[in-house]
Amino acid sequence: xxxxxxxxxxxxxxxxxxxxxxxxxxxxxxxxxxxxxxxxxxxxxxxxxxxxxxxxxxxxxxxxxxxxxxxxxxxxxxxxxxxxxxxxxxxxxxxxxxxxxxxxxxxxxxxxxxxxxxxxxxxxxxxxxxxxxxxxxxxxxxxxxxxxxxxxxxxxxxxxxxxxxxxxxxxxxxxxxxxxxxxxxxxxxxxxxxxxxxxxxxxxxxxxxxxxxxxxxxxxxxxxxxxxxxxxxxxxxxxxxxxxxxxxxxxxxxxxxxxxxxxxxxxxxxxxxxxxxxxxxxxxxxxxxxxxxxxxxxxxxxxxxxxxxxxxxxxxxxxxxxxxxxxxxxxxxxxxxxxxxxxxxxxxxx
Length: 350
Description:
This protein is an alpha/beta fold. Helix content is about 40%, strand content about 15%. The protein has a seven-stranded mixed sheet, with helices on both faces.
């Protein structure tokens, strides 16, 4: 389920699991307000914790909902998909003239029409697992995916490596229904043993400054997008477009708010003030923070976070710091080669 759809820079599931087991108990409320691909919420639910998640990205929220609202039986999931596909077949095909040229460049026209019709239906009907599954096969060069030859994680066409004249089969029409069924079967090879619905306290699309966190939080485990300073809008642009985010500059502004120290400071200050009021005594707050080798202003991000908690959340005490090297594959390809290490800061509320 962690591989339902790609997400660049995501937290390792084994790290999330270890932190959840160490700093929370079954039945307690675990919160992640930078949920990204849903790694922490999914692991927390699997381990019997209640979860609350939020993120400013529609893709992150859709993917997190898809994982936490996944079906538990493959037979019923495929039967439901067949029923929905029959309903979709009765809908008219969309007009491609309103589709941006950069989106059309990835698909055979007939395939693109099928994707548009199905994705809009799944969004309107709130079938998050199927929608996330569809997003997971949007682009790649492999036969089980829907696009012309392209990369899987970040959408870039690979027509130079796979020219149309040499690989004509990669540029043919690709039916959506059969590929989505195969994706669902792969995703549910190891389905959740039980439904997570009763463990979900909420999944919200919101900035950290605006989100209204629940009361009586037992544990926070989160990784602000300052980690690796990745360009989430650019790297997820094709999936965001199919989710109804046509204006990438809007998403870029929302995500870039945390790309410098001042934006990071504003977000963490707002968060610290809420946690001061809403965290249970004895609860733990864990931040995974990407560090740069070169300081910005006079502090590293983890030093800035510690300063903010001392000022705005005085009942929290730093009780542990862990350090890990970030592999090159998890770092941004441009501008931020200096981000080499991440610190895990563990606070406890007294």
